[in-house]
Amino acid sequence: MPTQTREVEPARPIRQLLYAMKWVILGFVLVATLRVDFASALVQRQPIYVAVAVIALVTLISQLAGKRSWLRNPLLSLVADIALVTTVTYFSDGIQSPFYPLYYLTVITAAVDFGLGGALMCATVVGALSIYIDFVSPTVHTRGQFMPEDIARTVPFLFLIALITGALRSRIRTLDEAAAAFRANQAASEREMEVAARVQRAQLPIETPTVKGIRIATTYKPAKEVGGDLYDFYPVGDDCVGIIVADVSGKGVPAALLLSSCKYAVRESYAEDLSRMISAVNQHILSVTADETFVTMLYGVLDVPTRTFRYINAGHMPPMIVKQPGKVISTEHSDPPLGIISGCNYVEQSIQMEPGDALVLYTDGVTDAMVAGDGGIEALQDFLAGVATSDLENWGGELLRRTAEPHHLDDITMVALQLDQ
Asked: Taking the complete model, does pTM exceed 0.85, yes or no?
């Protein structure tokens, strides 16, 4: 017999069904032997009773035994099944026995436990046994005579069932292995996302800076899959504050690590000349990224006394200025994202603000999630115009209500800085 193979998960409910069927079969054989008058077959009832009792006892003991008991060996169970059916057919007219189809179930059991090879070997053994019984059984009408028509009606079906059930079992095993690999990959991906989420959260500032003359409010909500949003503040003077809002392409740990590298590069490359600074950041990003990875970033410095916002937009969403009582202005200029072109020239832009104006920086997760109209820049402008007269601290909560799932598919990041009146 073939060696036992590792049990695959889908085979367990099938095996449990076969165990239940075994008890049904034992009961069927016992009741049929007791109650049915077999007019076309010679049935010796007493030996069949004994065989059913013995096999039932062995089956009960094996099922009550511990999982590691040798009585739970599938090979032993298969041998017991074959012995039961062989005994029953021996005392009930051999191949012509009304119980002969029970042999087919033994082949199915062999396929479940041992695969196609085991099923074919079981069919060979059972076929040989059934032919031999047909010659020696005391209940066969034509004892000692070769009956090819009886064999043709029974034995080939043993091998047909073996081929079908063995192939199905192999298919189930393949599907189970694919499902197990998928579950393992999914678990690994989930662990990676957890790590990425921790790395990403570590890049975000714990609190907003306190700068005289402005109020700052931040809104951040990660998507289910960890993306690559970043915002941070840089103290560049008593009356100035540096702000960065960035979005890394991709997800997971690589995106989170690139966020960390981007944050480090901005701090290490800081210069009053924003064009030279961002060019240095771009070269650093190029040195640590793959070809398909890039960063969109807006970095700027808000000078509170002069109410001037100087910035570089490297492929990021345009900044918006919210004026009272609800007028919203956005710029159009954008240079290439970081990590794409070496030696790219980044042009500094500036916005002159007025008392009470609010500067809003954000990522594309905000515009993608806007549910009003067709979404996008226009929807965000309408939203900001609607909340312009409310307290700055309430803008974030209203934004999250407007961008609730199922529209929330990406990280949502918004930073608002409002000048005092």
From this structure: no
